[in-house]
Amino acid sequence: MYDTSDIRKGLKIMLDGSPYTVVEFQFVKPGKGAAFTRTKMKNLLSGGVIERNLRSGDKLEPANVETKTMQYLYKEAESYVFMDTTTYDQVSIVEATIGDSRDFMPENINVEVLFFNDRAVGVSLPNFIEQAIVSTEPGFKGDTSTGATKPAKISTGAQVNVPLFINVGDVVKIDTRTGDYLERLSRA
Amino acid sequence: MADERARLAGRRGALEARSRIVRAARAWFEQEGFLEVETPARVRAPGQEIHLDAIASGSGSGPDGDARWLVTSPEYHMKRLLGAGFERIAQIGKAWRAGEVGPHHQPEFLIAEWYRAGAPLTAIADDCEALVHVAARAAGATNAALDLSGPFERTTVGEVVKLHAGVTLVGDESVDALAGKARAAGIDVTGRATWDDVFFQIWLDRVEPQLGRGRPTFVFDWPAPLGALARRKTDDPRLVERFELYANGLELANAFGELTDADEQRARFLDESATRGRLGKTVYALDERLLAALPHMRPTSGVALGMDRLIMLVLGAADIRDVVAFADDEV
């Protein structure tokens, strides 16, 4: 068991049957009252953030969660197959757990897989990926300062809005959190 | 060392403002006719409050070699002066509270404490209001998030708990009754076994974050279980003569209409000592000299105000570290 003195960012604990991670905490002590710790905690399953005020001495149950770096190998029916990069063990994760991450998860990419009670419950992508454009309208050298964009596709099938000068085969940098094009890294 | 030089250089502006504010506060006390007093930092009886822990400071020089503690506030000795007929006394000095570290807490901090014999609690609220203005002027640069254009808000615990938590507080309900009201309002009070723990769960979850937003707010009329050294209100003994001043998320000051009934004070001290013992905390000596002085005090109002927090408020600092030269982990 943890108590409130163990609280720090990233501590994983159980609350109401779900695993949470501490994202913010602050010592508070209302006048003439006991010490409390104000916390913001993120539900590792739903992503929802809650606030909890824990009294000094409250006990907290550790959450049985761990993250492993795994390589995404391929898609098989409704599942995605990953390989542990240290043990080479393979696991299948259902599409529902992958969620929107699939859009920016090209094959062979390394991701962090979150396990809760030894079951894979989520993947988190690197913040940035580098991907070649597989289809888009032909590029043209025009005014590059207007910020005009056009749709383009990467290998995962996801669509990204890119500047007009981008061609098929160009490698671009994408922010996986927003899906935004950031820059061209190399030309076709 | 290079890091420290850069850090201290970065704090220069705040330290200069701090110096101006403390000087202006002292000048204001003098102008108001207060006698500035210095009471001991090392004492026999640092205070019985259940949730305050003192820092040990060796032993006394007398033959009994009694244990000494750093004061958690200068209250007891200042009241001994009041018992001897001193009427308007003020002090700006250090106090120490073990284990308190956070954006609004340092184990060693600067406290302003003052008393007005014969004055009502509202006179102390007026003092606090004046002192915030004094500090804001001395700070020079204005904190845009602090609105001092109008009078401070004056409300009560009952009103703000009703308004922000939807809980009707009586003050003498049982802990179970209070917990039931909290649960009905959707507040999780699991594991809260005492009246004040249930109250503070409600307070921190729903009420305190809403206080003193924009303009500072005095919250008067605290429930008797949170009375500490305050006297009961004559028109409603379920409440005590106490206020707290909140501004921009900072708890700035705590004031009492001082309890002068030595018998009731002794009973409260013994009750707190017993609770401390039950919780496995150090039980400090009872301050018999304070208890002997209380009956000689006139009806008096007094307050403790956190000077570091006052400086944070007028400078708009988010962390107490930003307004001290050396935090506890930087000594």
Structural notes for this entry:
The complex is a heterodimer of chains A (188) and B (331). By secondary structure, chain A is mainly beta. Helix content of chain A is 2%, strand content 54%. Chain A has one helix at 95-98; strands spanning 2-3, 12-15, 18-28, 36-43, 49-55, 59-62, 65-76, 79-84, 90-94, 110-116, 119-124, 128-132, 135-136, 149-153, 159-163, 171-175, 180-186. In chain A, a hairpin with a 5-residue loop joins β4 (36-43) and β5 (49-55). The longest helix of chain A has 4 residues, at 95-98. Chain B has 331 residues and is α+β, with helices and mostly antiparallel strands. In chain B, α2 packs across α4 (121-139), α2 packs across α10 (307-315) and α5 (157-165) crosses α7. Chain B is globular. The two termini of chain B are 13 Å apart.
The largest sheet of chain A is: 6 strands, antiparallel
Low-confidence stretches of chain A: none
Average pLDDT metric of chain B: 94
Shape of chain A: elongated
User: β content of chain B, as a range?
Assistant: 15-25%
| Derived structural class of chain B | alpha+beta
Helix and strand sequence of chain A: EEEEEEEEEHEEEEEEEE
What is the subunit organization of this protein?
Answer: heterodimer
- Rg of chain A is 22 Å
Number of helices of chain A: 1
Determine the fraction of residues in helical runs of chain B and give it as a percent range: 25-40%
Distance between the termini of chain A: 56 Å
Strand order of the largest sheet of chain A: 1-6-2-3-4-5
Number of strands of chain A: 17
The helix/strand series of chain B, from N terminus to C terminus, equals HHEEEEHEEHEHHHEEEHHEH
Task: Give the strand order of the largest sheet of chain B, numbering strands 1, 2, ... along the chain.
Answer: 1-5-6-11-10-9-8-7
The shape of chain B is globular
Our count of helices of chain B gives: 10
What tags apply to this protein structure?
heterodimer, A: 188 residues, mainly beta, six-stranded antiparallel sheet, five-stranded antiparallel sheet, 1 helix, 17 strands, 2% helix, elongated, B: 331 residues, alpha+beta, eight-stranded mixed sheet, three-stranded antiparallel sheet, 10 helices, 37% helix, 20% strand
